[in-house]
Specification:
CATH topology: Nucleoside Triphosphate Pyrophosphohydrolase
CATH class: Alpha Beta
CATH superfamily: Nucleoside Triphosphate Pyrophosphohydrolase
Distance between the termini: 22 Å
Number of domains: 1
Helix content: 25-40%
Number of strands: 11
Largest sheet: 8 strands, mixed
CATH architecture: Alpha-Beta Complex
Length: 191
């Protein structure tokens, strides 16, 4: 565990020292915060990614990180991400050590997302909210950092064919904003 704490500290230092890209929402866009949760186990870190429930009005059936739109009562976007992670996967924010923020990204669905990278302390039980989350997957960071993690895929979105990079893990194809967040995380972790 000492090795993992050292890696957390290194990642925190890199995240805090770099200049991240920030974006101001355009008219009609909303701010959103997501938690990029790193869970430690004996073999290293895993990332937790959720598949959203199929009956949702926004992003149904898509893969993503726990998070959502900022509420007026959220003091910061970090608070948004931590509130949402409790609601969506039952993770108590007391178990999350915020390491830093990744660059904001804009989505075609009208959000400016701030990814919050957090290390999850201790053994935790994740309990997905069935009204929001179909299931969770854990992706080893060691796989994410490997040469075969990302591949080119063509997807249909809003009637358009889009060629993009996607993470493919055990039959799950993770693309779009989530893949872009993961690609930035990989660049930072390799630094």
């Amino acid at each position: 565990m000492r090795r993992l704490r050292a890696e957390e500290n290194r990642l925190e230092g890199v995240l805090r020292a770099r200049e991240r890209r920030t974006m101001t929402p355009r008219p009609g866009e909303r701010l959103a915060g997501v938690l990029v949760p790193l869970l430690a186990d004996a073999d290293g870190f895993d990332l937790v990614i959720e598949r959203r429930a199929g009956n949702l009005s926004h992003h149904a059936g898509q893969y993503g990180f726990p998070g959502g739109a900022a509420d007026p009562g959220d003091p910061t976007i970090v608070d948004t991400a931590l509130r949402e992670v409790r609601e969506e996967i039952g993770l108590d924010p007391e178990h999350v050590r915020v390491l830093g923020l990744l660059s904001d990204i804009r989505t075609p669905t009208g959000y400016v997302i701030t990814p919050v990278v957090g290390a999850v302390d201790g053994p935790v039980t994740l309990t997905p909210s069935p009204s929001e989350v179909a299931f969770l997957i854990r992706v080893p960071v060691s796989f994410l950092l490997g040469p075969e993690a990302f591949t080119d895929v063509t997807r249909r979105s809003n009637g358009l064919l889009i060629s993009t990079k996607a993470l493919v893990w055990n039959g799950h194809v993770i693309w779009g904003a989530t893949a872009r967040i993961l690609q930035e995380l990989v660049r930072i972790m390799r630094a």
